[in-house]
Write the structure tokens for this entry.
Amino acid sequence: MSGGVLCINGPNLNLLGQREPSIYGSKSLAEIQQELEEMAAVDGIAIKFFQSNHEGDLIDRIHQARGDSEVIIINAGALSHYSIALHDALRAVAIPVIEVHLSNIYAREEFRHNSLIAPVAQGGIYGFGTLSYHLAFLAAGKILQENRKSNLS
């Protein structure tokens, strides 16, 4: 399956639903994935998912996206705040990026207020819990639509 949306999730997101539900909510990553797959099916959009607790695996998957994805939705977790390597990988592939966070990173600890993903992202959605992923998918769909329309012109 080529094209479409790639949803990348970083460290500790495999523990969603169990880890600090007061901050991150009670849904698991699998439940979020199922919801996005249902949205994608309705819209006829291909969607792929990837999660890793390892920075190098995330970078490898971003590199692979050059051949199989048109938009990247990424929740890099804590790596958002200090990974120059993720920043560089996202910049290198030149694919539109939407940054997602479940919590409002600007209402939390000061070290979370800076995102190294933000400068290479087309936009970001944070603070809406799992709705952040839904909103990011809607934005990704709009980006796909606009890119495909401009390719036909």
About this structure: The chain has a mean pLDDT of 93. The CA atoms of residues 9 and 51 lie 5 Å apart. The first strand starts at residue 5 and ends at 9.
